[in-house]
Amino acid sequence: MSECYVCKVEELADGDVRIVKESGIEIGVIHQGGAYYAYQNLCPHQGGPACEGLRLPQVVDVIGEGGLFVGQRFDEADMHIVCPWHGYEYHLTSGEHVCNAALKLRKFEVSTRDGGIYVHV
Ligand code: FES
Fold first, then answer.
1. Which of 2, 11, 70, 87 could form a disulfide with 64 if both were Cys (CB 3.0 to 4.6 A apart)?
2. DSSP secondary structure string, 64-101?
3. Domain coordinates of the chain in residue numbers?
4. Which of 83, 99, 100, 103 to mutate to test the pocket of ligand 1 (most atoms within 8 A of CB)?
5. Binding pocket residue ranges, ligand 1, CB within 6 Å
6. How far is the CA of 4 from the centre of ligand 1 (A)?
7. The pTM is what?
8. pLDDT lower than 70: segments of the chain
């Protein structure tokens, strides 16, 4: 396993992504909600740059009395990575596709040390 320097902590604001290349693998390092995540920037659908897509919260139906649909809301605790090519969505925390767990982004460990962010490949 090798360790790849990404950038200084202050260079990756919350909500941003940094793309790095290590050992021939393109990796997206994402800072979201105070945590860091790293995935291969390769969508298992057709190879799109998944990490460069939007990050959006899960949409949840709101069901009222009698089982009636009354609207929808965002679940900010379940952010998704949305692949920019065809819109496949993956859970930010696991990399699993939201409907088919067999489709999964390749995940890497991230650490911070001495003011720097590192991804372990
Ligand atoms: S390549 Fe990512 S959704 Fe199709």
1. 70
2. -GGG-EEEEEEEEEEEEEE-TTT--EEETTT-BBSS-T
3. 3-120
4. 83
5. 43, 45-48, 50, 83, 85-88
6. 26
7. 0.93
8. none
